[in-house]
Write the structure tokens for this entry.
Amino acid sequence: MSGHSKWSSIKHKKGAADAKRGQLFSKLSRAIIIAAREGGPDPDGNATLAAAIQKARDNSMPKDNIERAIARGSGAGADAEAYETVTYEGYGPSGVALLVEAVTDNRNRTAADIRHIFAKNDGNLGGSGAVAWLFERKGVILVPDTEDEDEVMLAAADAGADDVQLEGSSYQVTTPPDELAGVRAGLEAAGIRVDSAELTMLARTTVGIEDESAARKLLRLMDALEENDDVQDVYSNFDIPEGILEAVA
């Protein structure tokens, strides 16, 4: 898990920014709609939907909103058909790889917006397959470091997790995508508190960013992408030392 220590920091930063912008529920709803449309409305047989629902619950999204999003995604209504998932790949400052997942009802508009953001922030939008091979889909569960390490390790292993590493102030538990819900349930059944659990894309290799100016440019690009209404998630393979990250945050 070396090189992924900043993942949780960026995700938490993104979550706080989304809430401030008032976009979070909209993005969570879209994720549920797409998951229900593509894999069916039963979360027990649809790991992506189960993860999207749990993420919505973790962010205090009302039950009615969740159920409405599931209904919209699983029904034959125009709302479900209007959205499609699009992935954009490119490079940011210092050759950092960026994978952008968007949900849009207008592919041309979103593509133009993403291209403009990359160009404005010293990035380059690439073609399909440019950087996707640098990432792999995983489940990531964050457990506060106040929990007993041995208990976290044992419960995670028993539940089928791939790995557990202490990253900053959290234990980062990685799982196969389809095992995310089961591992979370196993941890909670063992009395272990879970801060968050979601499907994500983890980088196979990382690019170290040691310069404050380069780090600032990179984070500016990521912020601009995340602020776009159609963008659901932005994944990158940077590794910024804690001191530099704090200086530019």
Residues 134-203 form a domain with the Alpha-Beta Plaits fold (CATH 3.30.70.980). The chain has three domains: 7-82, 84-133+205-248, 134-203. The two ends are 23 Å apart (CA to CA). The chain has ten helices and ten strands.
